[in-house]
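Consortium newsletter contribution from the modelling node. Members have asked for a concrete example of what our holo predictions look like. Here is one, prepared for the IPE complex that several groups have been discussing at recent meetings.
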Amino acid sequence: MSQVPQHIAIVMDGNGRWASRRFLPRIAGHRQGVESLRRCVRAVAQRDVKVLTVFAFSSENWNRPADEVSGLMELFAKALGREVPQLKLDGIRIHFVGERAGLSAKVAAGIEQAESATAMNSSLVLNICFNYGGRWDIVQAAAKLAAQGKPVTEQALSAAMGLAHVADPDLVIRTGGEQRISNFLLWQSAYSEFYFSDKLWPEFDEAELDRAIESYGKRERRFGKTSEQLTQSGASEVTSLKQE
Ligand code: IPE
Ligand code: IPE
Ligand code: MG
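And here is the predicted structure:
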């Protein structure tokens, strides 16, 4: 069985503290965070991972000071314009997951452009959770089913969620030292393995990515079963359970 997670999700936390420690404005930390993400995407693509999902802006981040929020929106729009051409060349397919209503015209246009420019790509799927919350995702999926008059089942709800186009994350990494989910993939992380890193996001590098992947490789994913069941019947049973 492959020891490399197929889908890694990351809560990119710690930009503000990285900046504060250098007596810089918080936005300087976010700028550095973009650099870190660029490196991370490249490193992940080199490691045979199929899907990378990152948390870039949460539903709750609107509650930050207005200048930080507007700075983040501007940085996001600019970074998209700058990074998408290379991501396109690298075969990376970008998806945005989150509430699009309420975003500025500039940000919305950047999102649409990034998605359409990379729609034919298939080497790595990069999901960017922006204006995203796990509760929002569950509610919007349930509302979709209700509007269509469909019964609410696990399968139907999964299919209506923001990450329906990929399998659930195998590994969720959170940088910045906090050990909480902060309304990230509440539904999809039901059986993910977690790796909490004390590195601040701008400091996250290949070595730390490899430590996370190595740690993942040592975990026993039981999906509710006993350890003995897994060793008796081998990996095939785990795989079939995951597909149920
Ligand atoms: C994460 O870094 C980036 C966003 C939430 C947009 P923070 O800005 O939360 O950094 P800290 O946690 O304050 O250090
Ligand atoms: C989570 O980080 C959101 C993102 C990384 C985009 P926060 O910094 O917003 O989380 P809390 O507030 O510390 O829980
Ligand atoms: Mg934070």
